[in-house]
Amino acid sequence: MAIPIAYNLRNLAVRKTTTIMTALGIALTVAVLLAVLALVAGLRNAFASTGNPLQVLIMRKGSNSELASNFTRQQYQDLKFKPGIALDSKQEPMVSLELVTVVNLPSVDNPDGVNITLRGLTERGIAMRDDLKITAGRWFRAGHREAVIGKSVAKRNPDAQLGKQLKFGRGMWEIVGVMDAGDSAVNSEIWADLNQAAADYDRPEVLSSALVRAKDPVAVNALINDLQADQKLNMMALTEKDYYDAQTSSALPIQFLGTFVACIMAIGSSFAAMNTMYAAVAKRSKEIGTLRVLGFSKAGILFSFFLESLLLSLIGGLIGCLLVLPLASVTTSIGSFTSFSDIAFNFRVTPLILLTGLLFSLFMGAFGGLFPARMAAKKEILVALREES
Amino acid sequence: MLRYLPLILKNGLRNRRRSILTISSIAASMCLLGFLLAMYHAFFLGQATAESSLRLVTRNRISLATVMPISYRDKIKTLPGIKEVMVYQWFGGIYKEPKYMFARFAVEPDRFFAVYPEFKLQEEQKQAFLRERTACLVGRKLADRFGFKLGDRITLVGDIFPVNLDFYVRGIYDADQNNENMYFNLQYLFDSLGPGRKDFAGTFATIVNSPEDVNRVSQAIDDMFHNATVQTRTETEQNFVLSFLSFLGNIKMILLSICAAVTFTIILVCANTMAMSVRERVKEIGVLKTLGFTNGAILTIILGEAAFISLLGGFVGWIIANGLAYGARQAPAFIQQLKTLTIQPSVTVALLVLSVVIGVGSSFLPAYRASKTSILDALRYTG
Q: Cβ contacts (< 8 Å) between A18 and chain B: which residues?
């Protein structure tokens, strides 16, 4: 028969100060790991929510970002009538020619300014973004210095507010609207009329990139192959999804730092748990002897103490999870080296992340509990009974 | 206090396993704390090298990705206090594969050595760089990493600029910092780009005569173009490099919150150990008291033991932190400051003082309680 779990729970409750302190140490370790994971998950979610799998982004060969890419109006004309491109309700091909550059604006975290993507596009470009809506104001008019800002820009950049003016290009641009694109990276962009922006940036003929919608999922690959092979166009094409997915790597340095910190903290916390468990074993020597006399096996003792260590660390893991839950409402930002601009996103505490935290804490408990439990199991009955606590 | 030292040491060693585990646990946290503090120090408190502190970087006010007219260079040069101004253009590009990342800059060779006086290379290599259009200079560290030798050809595929360029290594320079960069002739880039896209400047690197000129000159440059179509923003080289840190997110905040979490963990570990250790020897304290030890003496002994253990942990952590810093210095440079990451004396002091403070502070409550226990209660205690 196994030693009832209530025995372990009561023991943890009796030594509550020690239990709480050890568990808190584990909790903080778990919290650090989870905070980093939640950050990465948030960023990944922002990029994963951006782009339509049916859409293909076309950039100059050799450039790996829209910012560095060039796309001429002539190339746009050649592109428009490729087979496999979806048509809109007016039977026009769904191709959007876009200009991408960055403007520097102070943000709440960084008063010295962060880069924000400025995208020039036309009505068709707007129509090609699903789930995009204006939450305040209106869309910009063609031929005017008017801009629409993403909701994250409005939240994080005090200079960019509805009704205010921003200076970039050759003059003052009035902010006429705020757009909401769900979790997408579009929330961190500023949009304006393609032709006006192109004129302001002295790039009337050479723009940045083109976005194309394929007729159906099958046509996507055919379209990409067709575009890649077109010597005259000399462009590279990839799905909009792939382009944004690749930018998740922006979080790698922080992910690395956070994981590294959490692992070292885990070593420290495991030692602390081991200490606590050794003390528990030493103090309950008589009890162990008594249990053995009552007929519980060595394996039963081993298992019981091991379980107690796991329970201890699980309490820590649960506290750690609770500590990171409030993060879910925190917005932060990271710079993408591809778009060379700031992407704002929410931390995301997913069930999977919480589960990872609990497993991580159990791992610490297992490491910290194994040796003390073995020591407890190895005690000779007579010696154990005679031992002074 | 010193009188009790042997007793403190003996007590510290009586439960060796516990002491070792506690010391290891504190050491793990302390090494992290030391490493993170060193990082914070390098990023936000670090002093620029003598040459670097004299250099200013000017960029387009709108953003780094927007260029400025090259004519600004001569206008800036007219300001008093300036030794030299040079166009400094980030090239980017791909060498073989995107993962072989290092910084590549197009510069003006005839001004380059005035702006970067700390770069050491042989005179004939210098001359070759000035003379040959396709020459390039590479840092010693970069040369070691890729095995570049004089005369080697390096091909870069442009990403920002739609050109592929071939270079010949004509010089390998030595420098304490920035020794993983590649520099080549700006004119070569302009010639390759063809008409329509030339005579622009991504940034200007300016070196001033003396440290007193830094603030005045950087303000003067920005004032000069205040009413121009293209406005500028000038900052010290150090601040310019640090502005890339913000790409990684709110690093200051992240470092500080992790440091706080780690410190709190150390407090927990320390307090827990000392509480366990005191509880175990209440009876003994009763005996000590019967022998005539005062409450104060007992308090000193227990606090001393905690300080001793946590100081030892701090010391071991400090050693490991030095190892980590060494490792970080070997990693490919992302931010120049990481190249100089060392555990500064100030960080060392902070670490050791913190370990003593945490040791004493966290064990004060159990120690105080134990010292106040009356002899009879202590002797009767069966914890």
A: 272, 275-276
Q: Quick one: DSSP state of residue B95? A: S
Domain residue ranges of chain B, discontinuous segments joined by +: 2-47+249-380, 67-229
Consecutive H or E run containing B188: helix B186-193
Instruction: Check A22 against B160: CB less than 8 A apart.
Output: no
pLDDT value at A389 more than 60: no
Residue A201 has pLDDT above 90, yes or no: no
Q: Please give the model's pTM, rounded to 2 decimal places.
A: 0.86
Nearest Cα residue to B289 out of B279, B299, B275: B299
**pLDDT tier for residue B165 given thresholds of 50, 70 and 90:** very high
Task: Identify which of B26, B36, B63 has the shortest CB distance to residue A104.
Answer: B63
| Better-predicted residue by pLDDT, B323 or B227 | B323
Residues B159, A18: C-beta atoms closer than 8 Å: no
Distances (CA, A) of A119 to A165, A192, A339: 17, 6, 11
- Tell me the CA distances in angstroms from A259 to A35, A36, A251, A317, one per residue in order: 10, 7, 12, 16
- Rg over alpha carbons for chain A, rounded to the nearest Å, is 30
Residues of B in contact with A112 (CB under 8 A): 243, 246
A338 touches B at CB < 8 Å: no
Find the length of chain A.
Answer: 389
Distance CA A317, CA A294 (A): 34
* Closest-approach residue (CA) in chain A for B94: A62
Q: Which A residues 78-97 touch B at CB under 8 Å?
A: none
